[in-house]
Amino acid sequence: MKVEQIYTGCLAEAAYYIESNGEAAIIDPLREVETYLKKAEKAGATIKYIFETHFHADFVSGHVDLAEKSGAEIIYGPTAKTEFKAHIAKDGEQFKIGHVTVTALHTPGHTLESTTYLLTDENGKDHCIFSGDTLFIGDVGRPDLAQKGNLTMEDLAGMLYDSLNDKIKPLADDVIVYPAHGAGSACGKSMSKETFDTLGHQKQVNYALKAQTKTQFIKEVTDGILPPPQYFAKNAAINKGAVKSIDGVYEQGLKALSPQAFEDAANQTGAVMLDTRDPQIFAKGFIPNAINIGLNGQFAPWVGALITDLEQPILLITEVGKEQETITRLTRVGYDNTIGYLDGGFERWTDAGKEIDTVESVSAEAFEQAAAENEVTALDVRKPGEYESEHLELTLSRPLDFINEWMGEIDPANTYYIHCAGGYRSMIAASILKSRGVENVIDIAGGYAAIKNTGLKRTDFACPSKAMKV
Asked: Which GO molecular function, any one, fits this protein according to its record (predicted)?
C-alpha cells in the first residue's frame, strides 16, 4: 500500500495518490492532471477511482479531465448532483483499490455533500481518513459556503458538529488525518502549518474537536469568519459542470507576442496586463497600467480575490520560462482566458524603447523620517486581524482583499505610503492604485517586519480602523 500527499503550497491544497496491487486512486486532484497520470504509469498501476471530498470552492478540480484520460470513475458523496458522469456514493459504501478498502463517510457541514474517505489497509485496520474540508489540522471547514434557502451557517455548523462526533471522533486515535488544506487557505480560519496529524492528537489540541456542546461548537466555529473570496462560488459552480481540459487553455495562452503585438492586443481586447515578477523588480520598471501579483507568493488566491471576472482576457509579463507555470496556476482558480505573453519578458519591452512606469519604494527608515517631517497618509493593506493585533498608530487599515470597496475613498491627487507584512501585498495594491490613476504611491520596502524596527509608535491591541482622510 502506498499513500502519497501531493501538497501545493501556493494554494495550501493537498491532493492524494493511493496505490495497491496495481490499482490507484486520486483524492481531490488539481486542474493539471499529468502528475497523477505519470505516477500511475511509472508504478505500472491503473487509476481506478477519483474521489472528490466535495465541490471545491477555492480551486478548479481536474476530476473530469483525469477521468477522460485515465478511464477512472469519479466518486462524490451523498446528495451531490453533477452535470457529468459520476458515481454518487451511499453513506458507508466501500470501494476496493487492490488490497485496500475506501469507505465513504458522509460528513455534511462544510458543504452538504462533504464526504470523508476512510482507508482500511490490507489487514482490515483503519489507516487514515481523507477529510477534505470537514476536518483540518487545528481547525474545521467554514460552514458559510453552502447556505441555501432557509439554511444558515449555524445550521451547517450544527451538521458539522454531528458529522465530527458521529463519524470521525469514534475512529481510533492512531488514524492519520489527511485534510484537503493547510495554513493559508481561506477555507478555514486557524489551520496549522502541519499538513497531517493523528486523530488522537487532534482530539487533544483542535478547538473544534474539544467543544463540549453543539452550542459551544457553533459559536466557536462561526465566530470571526471573514467573507469568502469572490471567486469561491464561481469555482464551486465550475466544479459541478464539465470542466474543460487544460490543454486548450495552454494552446490559447502560450502565444509569444512581440512588444508591439502585446501592446496592440492590450489596446484591442481590454486585457488585464498581469506582471508576475518579484515585487521589488516590478517597482523599478513595468508596463504602464500593468498589475503586479508575484508568482512567488500566493499568486492564484490573490488573482481570484482581485480579478472579479473569470472570463477577463489576460496578457502575461513573466520571468522568461515562467509562462506555462503562470497559466497553470491561473487555471487552478478558473482563469482560462490568457491570450498571450510578452516574448522575451520585460527586457524585450525596454529594448524596444517602449514607455515604462515605476513605483517609488523607500526603506522603513526613510518612511519614519518622512512621517516625522510631515503629515503622511499611510495605508496598511494587511488583513483586519493582522492590523488589530499590532499596527502603527498613524496608519489606516485598508485590506487588500477589499480594495475594490475602499478604492472610492482614494484621492488621486494625494500621496499614499503603503505597506503590508513583508512587501508582497503592498506592491499589488500599489500597482492597482497606479493603474487607476493614482500617481503618488510609495511602497515601504520590507513591510511591517521592517517598520517594527523603527521608532514609530505602535499599538498592539484591537481598535477600530481609522476613517480614510481624503
From this structure: hydrolase activity
CATH superfamily of 360-459: Rhodanese-like domain (3.40.250.10)
Residues 6 or more apart from 42 whose CB is under 8 A from it? none
Q: Cell 441555501 identifies what position?
A: 148
- Where exactly are the structural domains of the chain? 2-236, 244-351, 360-459
Smallest CA-to-CA distance from 134 within 168, 97, 98, 166 is with 168
Average pLDDT over residues 59-80: 97
Closest CA to 426 of 260, 255, 293, 243: 293
Q: Partners of 75 in the beta sheet?
A: 51, 87
The predicted pLDDT at position 466 comes to 47
184: left (phi over 0), alpha (psi -120 to 50) or beta: left
CATH of 244-351, one of 3.40.250.10, 3.40.50.12280, 3.30.1130.10, 3.30.565.10: 3.40.250.10
Overall average pLDDT of the 388-404 stretch: 94
DSSP string, 273-296: EEE-S-HHHHHH-B-TT-EE--TT
The superfamily (CATH) of domain 2-236 is Ribonuclease Z/Hydroxyacylglutathione hydrolase-like (3.60.15.10)
What's the grid cell of residue 248? 486548450
Q: Which tens digits make up the pLDDT trace of 386-395?
A: 999 999 999 9
Give the pLDDT band (50/70/90) at residue 468.
very low
The model's pLDDT over 56-65, given as tens digits with 9 standing for 90+, comes to 999 999 999 9
Neighbour tally for 219: CB within 10 Å: 13
Q: State the Cα–Cα distance between residues 91 and 93, nearest whole angstrom.
A: 6
